[in-house]
Amino acid sequence: MTGAALALLLQAAAWQVEAWQPAPVSSPAFESHPAFDGRGRALYFVRSSARFTGWRLQVSHCRGGRWTEPAEPAFAGDGAEADPFVTADGGALYFISSRSEDGVPQSELDIWRVTRRRDGNWGAPERLPEPINSAGNEWFPRLAHDGRLYFGSDRPGGLGGTDIWRARQRGGRWTVENLGPGVNGPGDEYEAEISRDGRRMLLMAGGDLWTVPRSGGGWGARIRLGPEINGARLEAGPLLAPDGRSFLLARDTGAGGSGELFLARSGRGRFWPPRCR
Q1: Concatenated DSSP letters for 118-160?
Q2: Which pTM does this prediction carry?
Q3: pLDDT for residue 109 is more than 50
Q4: Which residues pair with 95 in a beta bridge?
Q5: Could you tell me if 112 and 140 are in contact, meaning their C-beta atoms sit under 8 angstroms apart?
Q6: Residues 39/90, Cβ–Cβ less than 8 Å
Q7: What is the pLDDT of residue 75?
Q8: For all residues of the chain together, what is the average pLDDT?
Q9: How far apart are CA 20 and CA 221, in angstroms?
Q10: ∠ CA 257-262-264 to the nearest 5 degrees?
């Protein structure tokens, strides 16, 4: 099946959307942007105020058949921190942060990476170099199967306010390119979640979720997902299952401004997300 055919299938799928709110991950605050480690034994996510401000990274571990009380990871810094992404092997975690550098508070969000040490703990975070980071804000870093790093950025040279870009390293040097029309438009595109096989993308643009098929060496035109997925409020932070047939998302429920995690299934995927047993 081609990427375009798969995207159309997913658009037309009879999505079943249900709350995914394991205790004590779910709270009166706003939970969003989930990411599992390589074995599904730790859940990283963002907890913010009910109005989706003051983003902070949290981690909950599966122990004794229950998720532990969430806490900030050992590598957490000051400022806003969000959008965690764990590589498939669990060896690295990408995130965005406005943490202080050399004691100087930062106003913009940059992409950082932390790698796992031999003892299984995380090392010291490192800020990724330019041109990945810019003088503007970067969002939602996602490493694709081909080694390209996808992210959102409001840097100059885009088609709108915030666009989706991707970076590639060759010979020790990074180059960055805009994904162009089809994916990007005159509005704001913040988040690009790439399937493991690289055949499609879940895109968050303007507070809604879209699917984008792979087309040759690039990406086709985006297709807005239906009313089962997109409502009148914010949908964000998609996390695709490894088989691409289901995904988690965050949704503003409107219940006092709180946000919660939801699971969207197409009815044919393997069981996911991982259970804490």
Answers
A1: TTSSB---EEPPTTTS-SS-EEEEEE-TTSPEEEEE--TT-SS
A2: 0.93
A3: yes
A4: 112
A5: no
A6: yes
A7: 97
A8: 92
A9: 30
A10: 140
CA–CA gap between residue 45 and residue 95 (Å, rounded): 10
Other residues' Cβ atoms within 10 Å of the Cβ of residue 93: 25
Minimum mean pLDDT among 149-153, 216-220, 241-245, 252-256: which range? Answer: 252-256
Residue 21: count of CB within 10 angstroms of its CB: 13
CA-CA-CA-CA dihedral for 216, 221, 227, 231, to nearest 10: 120
Please name the helix (run of DSSP H) or strand (run of DSSP E) that holds residue 9, with its range, or none: helix 3-12
Q: What distance, in Å, lies between the first and last C-alpha atoms of the chain?
A: 35
- In angstroms, the CA 210 to CA 183 distance is 9
Q: At 40, which amino acid appears?
A: G
Alpha carbon separation from 77 to 26, 30, 57, 134, 247 (Å, rounded): 23, 20, 9, 20, 29
Q: What residue type is 61 in one-letter code?
A: H
Residues for the chain: how many in total? 277
Q: pLDDT of 54-101, one tens digit each? A: 999 999 999 999 999 999 999 999 999 999 999 999 999 999 999 998
